[in-house]
Design brief:
Chain lengths: 637, 252
């Protein structure tokens, strides 16, 4: 099937305005008759629930944490992009649009990216109005910094915790609506199924994580804002609870999964210290404004204290390879360059898996106090984890899984191929193409939540009668029975290996054979080993306790079961895409280490349709057209 | 990097099946722990051993494991988050302990935070305080340009100092009165400092302090234990500012 993204046509700068006018509206008095479910309360979900509630819809919002304020958006450190052009350095909506398309290696839809760039400015205004304490200069104006993949300063920030502050803004707006009664909040609930009746999304089945009870919720539309899936690599910068489960359950009910092989490996994370490790910690990309990446030129210097290696014997590899962007090369490129140095045997630290990020020249230039003001909390965090003082010796960094550009397929209205199912933020595939630029995830989450879904969901709801299906419908009962049956199966196996042991094994396979570099052979290994591991899981996993109580092992077991199915799809997508682009690097397709795209054969969105566990999924294509940006080899040299 | 000598530790952990169970301390041994383990990774190892032995693992709240989500919440040897300056449990590392140490691990204990299971408590009372007024009543869309109102750097920085709160509740757990004054004071101050929040400042401080009392939190008697326990180092001066805002509100 050839998929249609239903993008508006005509001059790109008019597309969103024209589309907004063309969308049908729901009369204010009728809005309260419609129920909308929002799953996930990060930037996309929190902003959507608050905005839809304010418009007058009846919203039911769900999160697995104990409070909507804790979604993993909080962990974003560096900033949020907008095309304000406050620094007068040549930015514009067009430039942000262009940088994002190019940064994504020409694998995103033009119209969606234009809209994102256009509403980016509204986001900053909205957050300021909410009381988000963005950094300001001495005159009282908003301050900006630079980020990777751009030659203008368009990133707004709130110390090293921009994500936290933006989410608290959305959480405060959400809290206001909860108080007003337009949003009913359900915390400590995990979505375990999407209920589809006659091909239309009608509700969800959730597990109450405190009591273990299964609950049904019906609505006229369901919005998933359930984040990304890079915990499939086990060790990642995601929170422990991040999973593919909500998306995967929707996929199994018919929603297409687009471009799962586009995963982002962030270049600056603290290297792994041991096998017991549960997660990796990212150090903001903003550090590359002042930190310089290097490794020793000579292997003989590897054992030395970094400060004892003279300037002439250091290889500042990013500055050498990409003189015009230098240390601010985009993430996929910076990560691959780090791996290249380590593969060459010049990596530093345990196992030779690390590069230095050195602040000594910046400290000499602007003083330690200024560096402390810019990145103090990051240096503190680094010291807590590694016991090393980065003011005195360079940080050690290594790339780690961080973000998923792929996600459920959506059209221009953010609606999946299942009518009534909308997907927002990282959970959809829409704007980042094959690689996301820094400070663009926060922008997308809030754009989708505040400024896109409030319009597009109305266009859908205006065409359906409210309250057509309630929880008394047989599909809801059947859904609960299915979820319970799977849970009972997990509890009944009583095997010999823990959930963590399986997850570590899957993560190892994914990182080794489908991580920063992939090949036909390595992917064939995974396509054999993952199904075998999945089979073993269902025979040999050990989950203690019962389903009728708070049971974290059971929660993790369910998420791992889904990752064991999803990991295979990710590898299959990587296997089929015989090109390199952005975060997807196939070693067979490269030109002196740079990704080699194949625009003739692969300039499309690959969306997969589920056909059953272990069965070959069906590929549907949405061709990508570029009318405003010239398809070119991406160069940061 | 130092060598990987391992430690053996004795853990005395609060176990409580659910809200109705009286609960009791149980003793466990943590083996093969290195100085690079985080505190939660040490507990992960103990849990793996428990699962292999067919026993229920220790249940605790955690999520981001990088000190920012505010989910983790344990009283370690009597101190919320373990007592290391400006550190959440997940960022506490085992290099702060010695081989052979005995470690007591308990949940937050406060009237407003009922225990859910083992080390997990119900902190929804903090959400209720925010719902009472921890926001500016702006609508989505239709707001002024971000630079329309200038905010001096000193004010923006002070608002940011207050805004750093991660809502973990350590301030309540550390307070002998079980007060949420630091949590509430930080939000009241952040919004009262900024021009965008000033319009509703009087009503906000009244509503939020009312909610604080209704939820069963105590009052401040200047122990400063909240500031000592706060992983973000929120200053008690924000409690003073809230009190000032509260008095001002009586005349508004």
């Amino acid at each position: 099937m050839i998929l249609d993204g239903k993008c508006p046509t005509g001059p790109i700068e008019q597309t969103w305005d024209k589309h907004r006018f063309d969308l049908k509206l729901v009369n204010p008095a009728n809005k309260r008759k419609y129920n909308v479910i929002v799953v996930g309360t990060g930037l996309a979900g929190g902003a959507a629930a608050a905005s839809l509630g304010e418009l007058g819809y009846n919203v039911q919002a769900f999160c697995y944490q104990d409070s909507p304020r804790r979604a993993h958006s909080i962990a974003a450190q560096g900033g949020i992009n907008a095309a304000k052009n406050y620094p007068n350095d040549g930015d514009s909506i067009y430039r942000l649009f262009y940088d994002t398309i190019k940064g994504g290696d020409f694998r995103a839809r033009e119209a969606d990216v234009w809209r994102l760039a256009q509403v980016s400015n509204n986001i900053i205004d909205q957050c300021v109005a909410q009381g988000v304490p963005f950094a300001r200069d001495y005159a009282g104006y908003l301050d900006n910094r630079s980020f990777g993949g751009a030659q203008v300063s368009r990133t707004f920030f709130a110390r090293g915790q921009t994500g936290q502050q933006l989410l608290l803004g959305a959480y405060s707006a959400l809290s206001r609506q909860i108080k007003a009664g337009t949003v009913k909040m359900y915390d400590r609930r995990e979505m375990l199924d999407l209920v589809v009746v006659d091909g239309v999304a009608r509700g969800i089945t959730v597990r109450n994580l405190v009591t273990g009870e299964m609950e049904s919720y019906a609505a006229d539309a369901v919005c998933l804002a359930t984040g990304g899936y890079v915990n499939v690599f086990y060790l990642s910068t995601n929170a422990m609870g991040c999973s593919v489960t909500a998306n995967w359950k929707a996929h199994k009910k018919g929603a297409f999964f687009a471009n799962p092989c586009y995963t982002q490996i962030h270049p600056t994370c603290i290297p792994q210290a041991g096998d017991y490790q549960s997660k990796l910690t990212l150090m903001s990309e903003s550090l590359r404004n002042d930190g310089r990446c290097w490794v020793p030129k000579n292997k003989a210097d590897l054992g030395k204290h970094p400060n004892d290696i003279p300037e002439a014997d250091r290889d500042y590899y990013l500055e050498r390879k990409y003189p015009s962007f230098g240390n601010l090369a985009p993430r996929d490129i910076a990560s691959r360059a780090a791996k290249e140095q380590c593969d060459d045997g010049r990596g530093v630290g345990p196992g030779g898996r690390g590069v230095y990020l050195d602040f000594s020249s910046a400290i000499k230039r602007v003083g330690a106090d200024t560096i402390k003001e810019r990145y103090g909390n990051l240096f503190e965090m680094y010291e807590k984890i590694t016991d090393e003082d980065a003011y005195k010796r360079p940080m050690r960094m290594y790339p780690a899984p961080h973000y998923s550009m792929g996600g459920l397929w959506v059209d221009y209205n953010l609606m999946s191929n299942i009518p009534g199912l909308f997907v927002l933020g990282e959970a959809n595939f829409s704007v980042h193409g094959a690689n996301r630029l820094g400070a663009s995830a926060l922008m997308q989450g809030l754009a989708d939540g505040y400024f896109v879904i409030p319009y597009t969901i109305g266009g859908y709801l205006a065409t359906v009668k409210p309250g057509q299906v309630g929880v008394d419908n047989g599909e809801f009962k059947k859904s609960i029975e299915d979820v319970k049956a799977e849970q009972d199966k997990l509890l009944g196996i009583n095997g010999k290996k823990t959930v963590f042991e399986f997850m570590r094994e899957l993560g190892g396979l994914m990182w080794e054979n489908c991580g920063m570099a992939r090949s036909k052979e390595s992917l064939e290994v995974n396509l054999k080993k993952i199904p075998a591991l999945r089979e073993e899981f269902w025979k040999n996993v050990k989950v203690t306790g019962s389903g009728a109580e708070l049971n974290q092992q059971l929660e993790n077991a369910g998420r791992t079961a889904d990752f064991l199915e999803f990991g295979e799809l990710l590898c299959r997508d990587a296997y089929h895409r015989n090109e390199s682009c952005g975060g997807h690097f196939r070693v067979e397709y490269q030109d002196e280490g740079e990704a080699q795209r194949d625009d003739v054969n692969y300039c499309y969105v690959g969306a997969w349709e589920y056909k059953g566990v272990g069965k070959e999924p069906e590929l549907h294509k949405e061709p990508l057209k570029f009318d405003n940006v010239h398809l070119a080899v991406r160069s940061y040299k | 990097m130092s060598d990987h000598k391992t430690m053996t530790l004795t853990l005395i952990v609060w176990r409580q099946k659910n809200a109705n169970d009286p609960g009791k301390f149980e003793t466990y041994t943590a083996k093969n722990i290195t100085e690079h383990h985080s505190f939660l990774e040490m507990l992960d190892c103990v849990n793996e051993d428990l699962i292999h032995a067919g026993k229920d693992p220790i249940v605790f709240d955690h999520d981001c494991r990088e000190g920012i989500c505010g989910m983790c919440s344990q009283v370690i040897n009597g101190a919320p988050h373990g007592g290391q300056d400006r550190t959440t449990v997940c960022q506490l590392h085992m290099r702060k302990f010695k081989d052979g140490d005995t470690i007591y691990i308990e949940p937050w204990r406060a009237r407003a935070f009922p225990i859910v299971r083992d080390l997990i408590v119900d902190r929804s009372a903090l959400d209720k305080i925010t719902q009472a007024g921890g926001y500016t009543s702006c609508h989505t869309g239709g707001v002024a340009d971000g630079n329309a109102i200038l905010i001096p750097k000193t004010i923006a920085d002070e608002a940011m100092d207050a805004a750093e709160c991660v809502g973990c509740g350590a301030c309540v757990a550390g307070c002998p009165n079980g007060a949420a004054m630091l949590y509430t004071g930080a939000k009241v101050s952040q919004l009262a400092l900024l021009p965008q929040g000033k319009a509703e400042a009087a009503q906000r401080v009244k509503n939020m302090t009312d909610a604080m009392t209704e939820c069963g939190f105590g009052n401040c008697t200047n122990h400063y234990e909240c500031m000592a326990a706060c992983p973000k180092g929120i200053n008690v001066k924000f409690i003073a500012r809230m009190n000032r805002e509260f008095i001002k509100a009586q005349f508004a």
